[in-house]
Design brief:
The protein folds into 2 domains: about 140 residues, Rossmann fold, CATH 3.40.50; about 80 residues, no CATH class. The chain is about 35% helix and about 25% strand. α2 crosses α3. It is α/β, with parallel strands linked by helices. The relative contact order is 0.19. β8 and β9 form a beta hairpin. It is built from 7 helices and 9 strands. The chain is globular, with a radius of gyration of 19 Å. The strands form 2 sheets. A 6-stranded mixed beta sheet has the order 5-6-7-3-8-9, with helices on both faces. A 3-stranded antiparallel beta sheet has the order 2-1-4. The longest helix is centred in the last third of the chain and has 26 residues.
Length: about 260
């Protein structure tokens, strides 16, 4: 298994041109780290550049200034990251088994090996018995489990998660948060988790990076003083409530200004 690595984001800025050709600054001077085996969440108002940041770490975008990188034993010959998306991003013509095997197939693994690896992560994500089902036959929560299994199957050093549970109903979302934390306890992957939900960020993360409205800047990095493993009983503890209130105080005015900009 690939050993988790440290994520380094150093003075990153990103500017792009919108459809009208206007220059838009998405991020400005963002700096933070995610230690190996740490789960760090990123929150901020809509349009603050959270997804842009993930896309840079995934190698899909380049910073306009600054840099992103990884420190540790990187896997040779393959990307250090895998992404779990908000939209389930499954191939509708592939079964659960075939979807989980996709990255392994692209890597050129032989059929018996990739089936064995996929089976391991199908078991880890609670999908045993559904291997032959197609995405349209699964609930939203189960489809997202397939996405997580597919990402983990390629054994990334860092797991990037872009609002993975935001399309789910409240009950399913809570259950999926618990399942992801259980998976993290067993795999100890380095995880960078983007979300709009402050409560979700605090309950899951070791630290929360709070970004301002566009251009996204780091307002504060808030530590979460809760023990692991996390339990629902912690939702009423001072460490949880205090962190939620601190983060909301930081971004409330930012979110209001972002909303005004979107309406204008």
């Amino acid at each position: 298994m690939t050993r988790p690595v440290k994520v380094v984001v150093r003075d990153v800025s990103h500017t792009y041109r919108d459809r009208s050709g206007q220059s838009v600054e998405a991020l400005a001077g963002v700096t933070f780290t995610v230690e190996a085996e740490e789960l760090v969440a990123v929150v901020g108002p809509s349009g603050c550049g959270k997804s842009t940041l993930l896309n840079m770490l995934a190698g899909l975008l380049s910073p306009s200034a600054g840099g992103v990188g990884f420190e540790g034993d990187l896997p040779a010959g393959r990307p250090p990251t895998a992404m779990v998306f908000q939209e389930f991003a499954l191939f509708p013509w592939r079964t659960v088994q075939a979807n989980v095997e996709f990255g392994l197939e692209e890597a050129g693994l032989a059929t018996p090996e990739r089936r064995a690896i996929a089976r391991r992560f199908i078991e880890l994500t609670g999908l045993v018995g559904f291997e032959g089902k197609y995405p349209h036959q699964l609930s939203g929560g189960m489809r997202q489990r397939v996405g997580i299994a597919r990402a983990l199957a390629v054994d990334p050093a860092v797991l990037l998660m872009d609002e993975p549970f935001s399309a789910l109903d409240a009950q399913t979302r809570q259950l999926m948060q618990e399942e992801l934390l259980a998976i993290w306890e067993r795999t100890r992957k380095t995880i960078l988790y983007v979300t709009h939900n402050i409560h979700e960020a605090v309950w899951m993360a070791d630290r929360v990076v709070v970004l301002s409205r566009r251009p996204g800047r780091v307002l504060e990095i808030v530590p979460v003083e809760l023990k692991r493993p996390r339990t629902e009983a912690m939702l009423g503890q001072a460490g949880f409530v205090g962190a939620v209130e601190r983060i909301w105080a930081l971004i409330k005015s930012q979110a209001r200004e972002a909303l005004r900009e979107s309406v204008a």
